[in-house]
Write a structure and sequence with these properties.
Layout lengths: L8 E6 L2 H12 L3 E6 L4 E3 L4 E3 L2 H8 L4 E2 L7 H9 L4 E5 L7 H4 L6 E5 L7 E2 L2 H7 L4 E8 L9 E8 L6 H24 L15 E2 L15 H10 L6 E5 L2 E5 L3 E4 L10 E5 L2 E6 L4 H7 L2 E6 L1 E3 L1
Parallel strand pairs: 1-2, 1-6, 2-5, 6-7, 8-11
Antiparallel strand pairs: 3-4, 7-9, 9-10, 12-13, 13-18, 14-17, 15-16, 16-17
Amino acid sequence: MVTTGASLRVLFFGTPDFAVATLDALLRSRHAVVAAVTQPDRPRGRGQRVSESPVKRRAIEAAVPVLQPDRLKDEAFLDQLRAWRADVGVVAAYGKILTDAVLAIPRLGMVNVHASLLPRYRGAAPVHRSIIAGDTETGVTIMRVVKALDAGPMLATARRPIGPDDTSDAVEQDLAQIGARLLVATLEELTAGRVQEVAQDDAQATYAPRLTKDDGKVDWAWPAARLHNLIRGLHPWPHAFTFVRGERVILHRSAPQIGGADAAAAGTILSAHGDVLSTACCACSRSRRKANGRCACATFSPGIR
């Protein structure tokens, strides 16, 4: 890549694994990451042990100063940010809406790496919601950060197909790498004065709210394809789940199988071999079954929790 313009002093905002790929790409670039801002240490994982974020761990390894403000309006925090004399801010899944005071600090503003093709799926869980919806394509958008949620002008996009069995973790890992490369390329365009900003069409916007465990509750009256999308969209967290004899069963994988001779009530376990279940779903009338067949969602791999 031919580079033009001066290297940039970058303030980085990010928290989870998704953001680490962008931080790494910046560290490998000609630009200087002057500080990393991440969420405070919190209980994480199954054991809910207090731990640092993935971005904090990577920043410490790279000898990048780390800031973990509880409140973005704190004057001491804002003074620290100003002291770094940043040219641009880069955000990747930081987890909080930035204040006007923060947005005003970098002289070239702030840009965000968002894991969807905006204006679709603004919000906290764009990859998961896209897979749950059965989308066949997703992507990454680099946009300017404004105070409204994921609503800023778009600077660049890149697309990725979603395969019929792709899970959210696999798609998100790919998008992290795609977004990291796109972000660095966008900074080069920014330094050269070649960035073209495209306003989002707010009328086309959709929202991707944060996931909760309740999102995973299975309704066996749904068609097999919808259940399959839910299971892969919620893998590896919070997982789709059902109950068998009063015990909660986690559904890790699925393979829809349309057809079957005998009608069965939705939720009926047709066969069980080890951790593989074949379960009837799509509770249709007998006349509809003639057209649609029995929707049997097979090859679930449940773990009882």
